[in-house]
């Protein structure tokens, strides 16, 4: 029996996350070698599974040589086996596994696993997002927070919350740990496809920082910027960004 797309995405993200935990727990890798082993092992599982289960679809992975045949496909799976390799290697919880599906360029479905927390959040099973606090919180990179993000946070009086991977930051908004995720330091399609799909499925706003739609499965997979936030805060944040640029 063929799994539905949502079930497949969630299952693969969950299994890949468990594989990564086992690779780390084996105790035979350290430092950069651990990140490389985790990336390659999880990638092999995800790539082989998707080619077996969705042979007619396109595929784009951070850890796989790009195949431009995907450009002719309407449906393309976009995956990041380990989003936040540094955090994974440091045994933190703010790293993720991304399994996203773009259809005609739109991020229509996705699952983001947070293996360190034992969670899988999926676009087709939205939960209830906790209400926003009086003082908003903006999640930013713990190592290199984007200037636009810190400037907007200062302008709207938002508290900065430092966190690791893009997936963990995006899911922090869904989980009520933050209210705004603004990134302008450059990413790639695999960094945001699944998180954007999940955010949209949960009723959040997800766009470029100029308000334009996120478009995937392009020849150039560089994705310069991203905004994920509650819909009621989107116009305010976009206006602040426009004033700064």
Q: Secondary structure elements and their pairing?
A:
Layout: H1 5-25, H2 31-53, E1 58-61, E2 75-83, H3 85-89, E3 96-103, E4 106-114, E5 119-122, E6 137-141, H4 147-156, E7 159-163, H5 166-174, E8 180-183, E9 187-188, H6 189-201, E10 205-207, E11 222-223, E12 226-229, H7 231-244
Parallel strand pairs: 1-2, 6-7, 6-8
Antiparallel strand pairs: 2-3, 3-4, 4-5, 8-12, 9-11, 10-12
How would you describe what is shown here?
This protein is of the alpha/beta class and 245 residues long. It is 39% helix and 24% strand. The protein contains seven helices and twelve strands. Helix 4 (147-156) crosses helix 7 (231-244).
Secondary structure: number of strands: 12
Order of helices and strands: HHEEHEEEEHEHEEHEEEH
**Could you tell me the radius of gyration in angstroms?**
17 Å
Summed over residues and divided by their number, the pLDDT gives a mean of 95
- Number of helical segments with 4 or more residues: 7
Largest β-sheet summary: 5 strands, mixed
What would you call the quaternary organization? Answer: single chain
Percent helix:
25-40%
Based on CA inertia axes, which overall geometry fits? globular
Neighbour order of strands in the largest sheet: 1-2-3-4-5
pLDDT < 50 runs, ≥5 residues: none
């Amino acid at each position: 029996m063929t799994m539905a797309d949502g079930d497949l995405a969630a299952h693969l993200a969950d299994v890949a996350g468990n594989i990564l935990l086992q690779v780390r727990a084996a105790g035979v890798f350290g430092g950069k070698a651990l990140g490389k082993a985790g990336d390659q092992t999880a990638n092999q599982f995800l790539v082989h599974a998707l080619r077996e289960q969705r042979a007619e679809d396109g595929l784009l992975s951070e850890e796989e040589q790009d195949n431009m045949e995907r450009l002719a496909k309407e449906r393309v799976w976009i995956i990041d086996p380990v989003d936040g390799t540094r955090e994974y290697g440091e045994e933190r919880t703010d790293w993720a596994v991304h399994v996203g599906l773009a259809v005609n360029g739109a991020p229509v479905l996705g699952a983001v696993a947070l293996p360190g927390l034992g969670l899988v959040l999926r676009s087709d099973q939205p939960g209830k997002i906790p209400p926003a606090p009086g003082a908003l919180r903006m999640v930013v990179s713990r190592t290199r927070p984007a200037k636009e993000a810190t400037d907007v946070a200062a302008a709207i009086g938002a508290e900065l919350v430092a966190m690791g991977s893009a997936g963990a930051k995006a899911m922090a908004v869904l989980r009520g740990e933050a209210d705004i995720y603004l990134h302008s330091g450059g990413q790639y399609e695999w960094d945001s496809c699944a998180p954007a799909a999940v955010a949209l499925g949960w009723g959040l706003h997800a766009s470029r920082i100029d308000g334009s739609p996120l478009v995937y499965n392009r020849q150039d997979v560089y994705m310069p910027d991203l905004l994920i936030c509650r819909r009621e805060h989107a116009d305010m944040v976009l206006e602040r960004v426009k004033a700064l640029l």
